[in-house]
Design goal:
about 0% strand; EXOC6PINT-1/Sec15/Tip20_C_dom2; cytoplasm; mainly alpha; Exocyst complex component; EXOC6/Sec15_C
Length: about 800
C-alpha cells in the first residue's frame, strides 16, 4: 500500500575549485570517515598537532548541514504518504453509512420475529430450573437416607462391639457424604462426630490391647511351663526307650529274642505317642481363639492391629506393641533377691520361654506386626541376660545337685525354643563352661558320702535274706561270682561298704551323664570317663587308703577289706560299662579305652596290711624257734614246736580266708607269709643267739621246711596248678640253705652254674656266717682226743674251702 523508500548512500562530494588544496582534501577524508563509521581519532590528533582545530570544526559543521538537508528530504517523502492515506479513508465514509442503515433494518425485522420465541424460551428455562431443583432435592433425600442408614449401622456395630465394622461405616460416611452433605449443619455435625468416634474406637481397642498385655504375661508363664514340661516328657520317653534298648541288648546276648521283639513293638507305640501328642499340643496351643487349657488368645492383639491399620496408625501401633513387649521382657529379667534362684528358676525361664513362643506365633501369623529382625534382637537381649544370670547364680552355688537341676531346666528350655528356630548355643556354652565346677562339687559330695559309708562299715560280711536284696546289692552292679542265684539267706564275701560305694559311684556316673547330656556335645564319654577316673583313683582310692591306714587293726578286718577290694575291681568294670551305655557309645569302644584298675593303691595297701598283720601273728609263733635244740644229736621227726603252731594257724587262716578271699589274693598273701617264715628260719640261723648247731639240727629244720612245703602242696585244690608251685617257691631261701648245709659237696656253691640253678636265693654273707657255725663237730669238747689218727672229713674240708673262698670274696 505504501511504497518503501530505500535510503540512499550519500557519497562525499568533490570540490571543483580547490581540488588540490589541503583543506579541501581533509574535509573529504573526514566526511568519508564519518560516513563509513571509521575512527576520527587520527583527524582530531592531526588538527591539534597542526594547531588548526577550527578547520576540523568547520568541516564537522559542514557535514552536519549536509545531513540535515538529507533528513529534510526524507521527512517530506513520508508526509506525502500520510496525506494519501487520509484521502483513502475519507473515500470509505459513505460506504460505512449505507452499511449502518442496512443493519438497523435487519435488527428491526429480527426483533419482531423473535419476540414470541423469547417468551417461550423463558418459560422453558423456568420449567427446566424447577425440574432440576426437584431432582436435586430427591438426590439429597436419598443421600440423607443412606447417610442415616450408615449412621444407624455404625451405632449398631458400636453397641455390639463390632468396632471394625463401625469403623468401616464411618470411613464410608467420610468418603461419600461429608463433602456432599446437603446441609452445612449436618456437615459440621459429621466433621465433629467422626473424629470423636474414631478416637473412641482407638481408646477402646487400646484398652483391650492393654488388658491383653497384662493377661499374656500369665499365659506366657503357663505356656512356657507346659512347653518345657512336654520337652521333659519327651526326654523321659527317650530315656525309657534307651533303657529298654539296653535291656534288649543284654537280653539278646542271652538269646532272649522274645523280649527283643516286644521291645520293638513298644518302641513304635512310644514313637507314635510322642509325635501325636506334640502335634495336638502344638495345634491347640497356637489357636487364635481362646484355648481352654492355656487361654492363649491373640484375637485382641490382631483386632487392635487391624483397627489401627484401618485408622492409618499401623506404624505407630507396631512401635507401641514392640516397646511394650520389650518392657515386659525387661521386667521378666528381674531376679528376686528375696527368693533363692533354685526355687524361682523354673518360673524365670518358663516366663521367657512363653514370651518367645508367643512372639514366634505373632511373627508367623501377625501380618507384619513384628519383624524377624525385631524378634532376633529381643532374643539376643534375652540370651545375653539369661547367660549373665546363669553366670552369676552358678558362681554362687556350692551344691552340685542345685547346678544339675538348673542345668536340666535350661537344657529343656533350649530344646523347647530350638523347635521354634531360636539359637541357644550361648546358653549351652554357659552350661559347658561350668562343667568343671559341677564335677568338682559332685566329687566333693561323693567324697563326703564315701567317707560316711566307710566310717559306718563294721568289716563284717553282708547278709542278704531276700532275693530283692541280692538283686539290689549284687546284680545291679554285676559283681556276682556266678550267674546262678544263690540260696537265701546268703552271706556275701564283701561288707556293706561295697554296695554303698557302688551306689555312690553309680549315682555320680548318672549325675555326670545327666549334666553332660543335652548340652550341645554329642560325644562326651571321654569327659565322663575322666571324672569317673578321678572319683575312683583320687576320691575312693584315697578314702580306702585312709580307712586301711587308720581303721584296720585286725586280721579279720584286713581280710574283709582285701575281699572288698576284689569285688570293687569287678564293680569298676561295671562302672565304665555303665558310663559307656549312658553315654550312648558301644561297649567295644569302652573296652578299648579301659585303663588299669583305678584302685591299685588301695588294693595293694589292703593286701600289704593283711600280709603285715599275718606276719605279726606268725612272728608270735616263730618266737618258739628259740626253743629249738640246735646241738641235738638226733633230728626231730615231727617237726619243731614253732612250725606246728604255725601250721595250725595257717590251716585255720586258709579255712577262713577261702570263704571270702578269691584264690589269687589268698595266693599272694600266703606267698608273702611263707616267704616271711622262710626268712625267719634263715634269720634264726644267722642270729647271734645261735652260736653253733649240728647237722642233726639242720635235719630237723629240713623236716620243718618239708611240713611247710606239704602245706603249700595241699593248697593245690584252691589254686590253679601253677599257683600251688609258686607257694613252694616262697620257701626257696630256707630250702636252698638246708640243701646247702646237708650237701656232701658244699663248695659247689662257688660254681656259678650250680649256684644259679640251685642256690640263687642265698646271700653269700649269710652262707659264710651260718657255715662257720656248722664247721665244728657236735662233740668238739672231746674232739682233740678222738680225732687223732682219724681220716679227715671231706665234707668238712669242702665246707672250710667254701668259707675261705667266700671270705676272700667279701
Amino acid at each position: 500500500m505504501h511504497s518503501t523508500k530505500h535510503r540512499r548512500k550519500v557519497a562525499p562530494a568533490n570540490g571543483d575549485a580547490n581540488d588540490n588544496s589541503a583543506d579541501k582534501q581533509d574535509q573529504l577524508h573526514l566526511s568519508a570517515a564519518i560516513y563509513n563509521g571509521e575512527d576520527l581519532g587520527p583527524f582530531v590528533r592531526k588538527a591539534f598537532t597542526t594547531g588548526k582545530p577550527e578547520i576540523l570544526l568547520h568541516n564537522l559543521r559542514h557535514f552536519v548541514r549536509s545531513k540535515e538537508s538529507e533528513i529534510e528530504e526524507v521527512c517530506k517523502a513520508h508526509y506525502q504518504d500520510f496525506i494519501l492515506a487520509v484521502d483513502d479513508l475519507r473515500s470509505l465514509l459513505s460506504d460505512v453509512d449505507s452499511l449502518k442503515s442496512s443493519l438497523s433494518d435487519s435488527n428491526s425485522k429480527l426483533q419482531s420475529v423473535a419476540g414470541p420465541l423469547l417468551t417461550y424460551l423463558d418459560s422453558y428455562i423456568e420449567a427446566q430450573t424447577v425440574s432440576h431443583n426437584v431432582y436435586l432435592a430427591l438426590t439429597l433425600i436419598v443421600s440423607c437416607i443412606k447417610l442415616m442408614e450408615l449412621c444407624s449401622r455404625a451405632n449398631d456395630h458400636m453397641s455390639a462391639g463390632n468396632l471394625y465394622m463401625a469403623l468401616r461405616c464411618v470411613d464410608a460416611i467420610e468418603t461419600e457424604f461429608v463433602d456432599k452433605a446437603p446441609s452445612s449443619t449436618l456437615k459440621r455435625m459429621l466433621e465433629k462426630k467422626i473424629p470423636q468416634l474414631r478416637s473412641h474406637i482407638e481408646r477402646k481397642v487400646s484398652k483391650d490391647f492393654g488388658d491383653w498385655l497384662v493377661e499374656i504375661r500369665v499365659v506366657s508363664r503357663n505356656l512356657g511351663q507346659l512347653a518345657i514340661g512336654q520337652a521333659s516328657a519327651a526326654r523321659q520317653r527317650e530315656e525309657d526307650l534307651r533303657i529298654k534298648q539296653r535291656q534288649a541288648e543284654e537280653q539278646s546276648r542271652l538269646n532272649l529274642r522274645d523280649c527283643v521283639y516286644a521291645l520293638q513293638e513298644e518302641e513304635d507305640d512310644d514313637d507314635d505317642g510322642v509325635s501325636g501328642g506334640m502335634d495336638d499340643d502344638a495345634k491347640s496351643g497356637y489357636s487364635n481363639g481362646g484355648n481352654s487349657l492355656l487361654g492363649f488368645d491373640l484375637t485382641p492383639l490382631y483386632r487392635a492391629y487391624h483397627i489401627h491399620q484401618t485408622l492409618g496408625l499401623e506404624d505407630r501401633f507396631k512401635k507401641y506393641y514392640f516397646e511394650n513387649r520389650k518392657l515386659q521382657l525387661t521386667s521378666d529379667f528381674q531376679v528376686s533377691s528375696m527368693t533363692p534362684f533354685l526355687e524361682s528358676h523354673q518360673t524365670f525361664f518358663a516366663q521367657i520361654a512363653g514370651f518367645f513362643i508367643v512372639e514366634d506365633r505373632v511373627l508367623r501369623t501377625g501380618g507384619g506386626l513384628i519383624s524377624r529382625m525385631e524378634v532376633d534382637n529381643l532374643w539376643e537381649t534375652a540370651v545375653s541376660k539369661m547367660c549373665s544370670v546363669l553366670e552369676d547364680q552358678f558362681s554362687r552355688m556350692q551344691t552340685a545337685n542345685h547346678l544339675l537341676l538348673i542345668k536340666d531346666y535350661v537344657s529343656l528350655l533350649g530344646v523347647t525354643l530350638r523347635r521354634y528356630g531360636y539359637i541357644v548355643d550361648a546358653l549351652l556354652e554357659v552350661l559347658s563352661k561350668h562343667r568343671d565346677k559341677y564335677h568338682e562339687l559332685l566329687l566333693s559330695d561323693c567324697r563326703k558320702q564315701i567317707a560316711e559309708a566307710l566310717a559306718a562299715d563294721k568289716f563284717e560280711q553282708m547278709l542278704m535274706k531276700k532275693e530283692y536284696e541280692y538283686s539290689m546289692n549284687v546284680l545291679s552292679f554285676q559283681i556276682q561270682m556266678s550267674d546262678i542265684v544263690p540260696a537265701f539267706p546268703y552271706v556275701a564275701p564283701f561288707s556293706s561298704t561295697v554296695p554303698d560305694c557302688c551306689r555312690i559311684v553309680r549315682s555320680f556316673i548318672e549325675d555326670s551323664v545327666s549334666y553332660m547330656s543335652y548340652g550341645g556335645q554329642l560325644d562326651f564319654f571321654d569327659v565322663v570317663k575322666k571324672y569317673l577316673d578321678r572319683l575312683l583313683s583320687d576320691v575312693l582310692d584315697g578314702a580306702l587308703l585312709k580307712l586301711i591306714n587308720s581303721s584296720v587293726h585286725g586280721v579279720s578286718q584286713a581280710m574283709q577289706v582285701a575281699a572288698n577290694m576284689v569285688v570293687l575291681e569287678r564293680a569298676c568294670e561295671f562302672f565304665f560299662r555303665h558310663a559307656a551305655q549312658l553315654s550312648g557309645i558301644p561297649l567295644r569302644m569302652a573296652e578299648r579305652s579301659r585303663r588299669q584298675f583305678p584302685l591299685n593303691n588301695a588294693r595293694d595297701a589292703a593286701e600289704e596290711m593283711l600280709s603285715g598283720l599275718l606276719k605279726q601273728k606268725v612272728d608270735g609263733f616263730m618266737t618258739l624257734i628259740e626253743n629249738v635244740n640246735w646241738m641235738a644229736d638226733e633230728p626231730v621227726q615231727n617237726g619243731n614246736e614253732y612250725v606246728n603252731e604255725v601250721m595250725i594257724y595257717l590251716e585255720t587262716l586258709v579255712s577262713t580266708a577261702q570263704q571270702i578271699l578269691p584264690g589269687n589274693v589268698l595266693k599272694r598273701v600266703l606267698r608273702d607269709v611263707l616267704s616271711h617264715i622262710s626268712e625267719k628260719i634263715v634269720g634264726a640261723l644267722v642270729a647271734d643267739s645261735v652260736k653253733r648247731f649240728t647237722v642233726q639240727a639242720v635235719m630237723g629244720v629240713e623236716v620243718d621246711v618239708k611240713i611247710l612245703e606239704a602245706f603249700a602242696d595241699n593248697q593245690a585244690t584252691l589254686f590253679p596248678e601253677g599257683d600251688a608251685s609258686q607257694l613252694k617257691t616262697a620257701l626257696g631261701e630256707a630250702r636252698q640253705l638246708v640243701n646247702l648245709l646237708l650237701s656232701s659237696h658244699p663248695e659247689n656253691f662257688l660254681n656259678p652254674v650250680i649256684r644259679e640253678r640251685s642256690y640263687n636265693l642265698l646271700d653269700y654273707r649269710k652262707v659264710v656266717t651260718i657255715s662257720e657255725k656248722l664247721k665244728d663237730p657236735a662233740d668238739r669238747l672231746f674232739g682233740t682226743f678222738g680225732s687223732r689218727g682219724a681220716r679227715p672229713n671231706p665234707k668238712k674240708k669242702s665246707l672250710d674251702t667254701l668259707i675261705k673262698r667266700l671270705k676272700d670274696v667279701s
